[in-house]
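re: ur question from earlier - yeah i can do the single chain one, its not a big deal. heres the input i used so u can compare w yours
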Amino acid sequence: MRPCVAIVVVLVSAGAAGLAAAQAADSPAVTRRASPAANFAAAPTKAAGAPAAAPAATGAWGPQRDALAPPLKPELLVCARVGGADDQGLTEVEVRGNRVAAAGRNFAVVLTLQDDGTIRTAASGNMAARQTDVRHGYPSILSARLGPITYGYKQVDPILKQPYLHGPGWRLWDWTMAQCQAATAPAAPFMADSEIVFAAAVPNGNLYAVGKCDGGNTCLRVHPKDINLPLEFPISHGGGKGTSSFAFEITPRGELVRQMVLRGFANAVAWDAWGRILVVGAGVVPKAQNDLGYPDGAGVLLADREWTRTLFSTHIGSHDGKASFWACAIDSASGLAALAGYVEGSDFEQVRPIQTAPGGGKDGLLVVLRLWEKAAPAMPGAAPAKPGPAPPAADGPAAGQPGA
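and the output i got, formated as tokens:
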């Protein structure tokens, strides 16, 4: 069992649900963070600017960023469930300094990691209220918008959905049924339903987009401007049978920069100050690729800024139920990362639990990791990642990997 230390719990204004209420009561230094899609939709992006202001196709993170990035030394500080009877989930999260705030539809929790190793917890809202939209992954999206960007899928035939992503003066994917049938790239004809389900602004000014498919013969395997040009995926954890998520970075001019493929659902994303990318969801990485030793469930991947190497990956799950992450955030100054979602089941190992027993059905899941060391010593009682072989520089194909 992983060690636990004392937690001080403060219940605050049970009638006032939401992250803002918990912040006002116990954490004024933590500001509200919207859910992943809403957060990035509200953020300014160079995708809406003039083409002359577009960043370089390689991503404008600046020189020497990889050399300056602190070395990783992951520690699991908190792995806790929170919720009452019926289904709940956490869909928003913020981390700033030593404070983490997370919220679902009807309640919120704020953790303060104190210098003596204890954690102060403030909760607000109704943890027993049922949340009907606790999902495992993104549903089908016919059409969505992020500033001037539109994306989703088109029903090009009664038996086939095809993805599209449109920007100012450019169009990606958007193939017809005839093009899918006539394609000559490997895995063609492309008869697997595929769609773009999520888009976000990258801090370097580019666009991040996620495509979802339910089979290996998907057009997401080829270049979005050339259906006969296959893509290479240095990080390849999916793309076979079952659900896979294809992540892409695209410039404001609609040029493809880099890509990776993940197992299951890639639901949320965050970046550190050095351009390293954190992707969370359900599955995400292979079942055996698990630095913290938990069962398959909610997945975590941290990759280098060029998307060529897996730096850290793990699952957080129970032995008798599903789990998924829906939000994530990184505080580069402290090295803390916060992940939020849901977990099912009674056989679930917690670290610094907020509540000891399952609430019933799906409960909110809150995980706090220290990804790299800060100046002060690590918190006592933290559970270090289990040592294991370093990941390869380029992951091999994962054909046949099951979906989440």
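The CA atoms of residues 9 and 121 lie 5 Å apart. not sure if urs matches, ping me
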